[in-house]
Amino acid sequence: MGALPINKRVYTVGIIVFPGADLLDFTGPHGVLSHVSYNNNPVTPEHVFNIELIAAKEEITASDPITIKRHRSIADARGQLENYDILIVPGGPLPVIQGIIDSNGEEYQFIKAFIETSKNEERILMSVCSGAFILGATGILAGKTATTHSLALDGLKDICDEASRKLGGGNTKVMKARYVDGGLTKAGMRVITSGGISCGFDASLYLASLKTDDSASNFAAMVLEYIAPV
């Protein structure tokens, strides 16, 4: 990856959260990215990422169940879509994910709006675990390689095939992996999908290396005392 940027830009990250979202699917990336700094100093960090939890309601009961408070409403965030450089979509139980898709709920509409909002620079859309199902339903995985939880690979392939039949754009190759960088869309959005739960750590460290360099992401992994599986 490239050298650390001189201007030390702070990237705005939105994490969409919904009832039943898997806790580690969104707290994992949040924790990783919050430890990435330009000065590699955990005491007085020069943060690279400004992270916001975005949700329809002020309080959301995630899995386990644990209740969290949002930073910003979906309606408010949607009015400022151009300010978001990165959007992270966590997973959850498949009935919850399918319900978001089938109901065309606020979360699904927000993700589609993010995909459709143009910006004169690369943005990143990243999913964790079954969050890839939502991405697949939008059609953005058409013609790309993607992954999800190893127990849900066939389901992701089915939903991508269905989207391809409806929307066109080519077939999706689904594979087992910690994470997959599917590359850029024609609109300049990089699509990253990750496997189940803890794989979101790996994908987030990779994302961090794209926006800084390997030394910053490696330092964050050291602070977290996280060693990625081989």
Give a summary of the structure in a few sentences.
By secondary structure, the protein is α/β, with parallel strands linked by helices. The protein has helices at residues 23-34, 74-78, 94-102, 106-116, 131-138, 153-167, 199-211, 214-224; strands at residues 11-16, 49-55, 59-61, 67-69, 72-73, 86-89, 123-128, 145-146, 173-174, 179-184, 189-194. Helix 5 (131-138) packs parallel to helix 6 and helix 7 packs antiparallel against helix 8.
Given helix and strand content, the structural type is alpha/beta
Strand order of the largest sheet: 5-2-1-6-7-11-10
Q: What would you report as the Rg, rounded to the nearest angstrom?
A: 16 Å
Task: Characterize the overall form.
Answer: globular
Q: What kind of sheet is the major sheet?
A: 7 strands, mixed
Task: Report what the structure shows.
- The protein is of the alpha/beta class and 230 residues long.
- The strands form three sheets. A seven-stranded mixed sheet has the order 5-2-1-6-7-11-10, with helices on both faces.
- It is globular.
- The protein is 37% helix and 20% strand.
- The protein starts with 10 loop residues before the first strand and ends in a 6-residue tail after the last helix.
- The chain contains eight helices and eleven strands.
- The chain has helices at residues 23-34, 74-78, 94-102, 106-116, 131-138, 153-167, 199-211, 214-224; strands spanning 11-16, 49-55, 59-61, 67-69, 72-73, 86-89, 123-128, 145-146, 173-174, 179-184, 189-194.
- 43% of the residues are buried.
